[in-house]
Amino acid sequence: MLIFLICIGVLLLAYKFYSPFVERQAGIDPNAKTPQARFEDGVDYVPVHPAKAFLIQFLNIAGVGPIFGPILGALYGPIALVWIVLGNILGGAVHDYFSGVMSIKEDGKSLPEIAGHYFNIYFKAAMLIFTAMLLFFVGVVFIMSPAGLLSNLDYFKDTIFANNTFWVLVILAYYFFATLLPIDKIITKLYPFFGALMIVMTTSIAVALLIHAPQLPEFGDVFAYFNHSHYNNDLLEPNPDGLPVWPLLFVTITCGAISGFHSTQAPIMARCLTNEKYVRPVYYGAMVAEGIVACVWATAGIAAFPGGYVELKAILAQGGPGMVVNQVATTYLGVIGGIMAVIAVAVFPITSGDTAFRSLRLTIIDAFKIPQSMTNRLLVAVPVLIIAYFMTKIDFTLIWRYFAFSNMLLSTSVLWLATKYLFDRGAFHWIVSLPAIIGTCVTLSYILTAGIGLGFPQEMSQPAGIVVGVVCLIALIIAHNKRKVTPAA
């Protein structure tokens, strides 16, 4: 458990010492009027207490992402924990923070509008497509996964509640109201409670793991997969199937490390914060909290099963990450754990799905300058939800693959957007530009290799991604040096 405890400690230290440095680059002004104060409309621009804003942002970005992804990532062994921590500190936290900064500085606008301001109409159009595609896929995924779970519960066997379509329609009906109603009618009332529940569940599982978990691999075996060596216990051998860590681990674990979906949620709270000084605890803080959740569940995937990799893989093949959550929670926490497990895999994704569709509505309204009347909100929301219903008839794994790619692509785009923001300010841009280069390498390597992409062999795609990253770095150094000698700098 030493690796796990070190990871949690490093995440907390990063918030304490690194996040203030990041904040100093952003140009935060506690005396500036926020979008909420300037545009309060009783619908989206509504004042929210910073503690509530943190819990809402945490739940918006979390859902089951930092649970399911790390459980799947546990198949790679303890290296999953290393990626979560490094990805969170160097990529995800600054990505989420600058998403919030740029939105609150730009009247709470959505990403495509911000992209148009800092680059041009073409980049704005690309960001609009990527953002809308990701939000739509997230919404559809978070209809299908909870509906599938609820319809298969033993409690509902041989009843109408065992019908998957029934739950799809129920979830869509909830999304309809949550998308249209003012934010203080549902989201600010329910989400702080569910966010707190996520924290309680995570803490309980972490304590249980520290007390009850079986013997874990030795510390020195963390990087064993690099030379294809094995643990002394063959059942604990990491990744014996030879899954390529680059780039698959980076795609498997996104929430908790870095996720483009988080940036789409930034405008929701950016329109509700009453002071710019709350951006760091709300956005950076929520991402660190999600990283801790991801570490807990990655550790659970590695540690909670005496059969190690073999047992974990068998459970995933039988019932997916949801079954792992259920087994871990019920084994360590009993009846209460079972209730928490159902909430985790059913309610939490719904709370991300509804804000995904809400963000999609805001993105479309911002892009086409549509007035915020109830009629216009209906004209945007209803067609989107109808199309989403028919999309639930498509194979889930296909939807998930497109979601994974668009998620990775958007996070990289946002990091480049943040690079431009800091370039224009004359600030230390390397905190976002270096992660942007790494994201570019991973994104290119993935789309060259993946079945939904070009399907090239790994021997070709991996070096291609690295070469493009080196080219980006050289171009960035040249641009940096030019900026240093200009009078404006």
UniProtKB/TrEMBL annotation:
It comes from Shewanella vesiculosa. The keyword Cell membrane applies. It is a multi-pass membrane protein. Keywords: Cell membrane, Membrane, Transmembrane, Transmembrane helix. Residues 2-143, 151-315 form the CstA N-terminal domain. Its main location: membrane. Pfam families: CstA (PF02554). Signal peptide: none annotated. The chain crosses the membrane at residues 75-98, 119-144, 164-183, 190-211, 243-261, 282-309, 329-353, 374-392, 398-418, 430-454, 460-479. Belongs to the peptide transporter carbon starvation (CstA) (TC 2.A.114) family. This is Carbon starvation CstA family protein. It is found in: Cell membrane. The keyword Transmembrane helix applies.
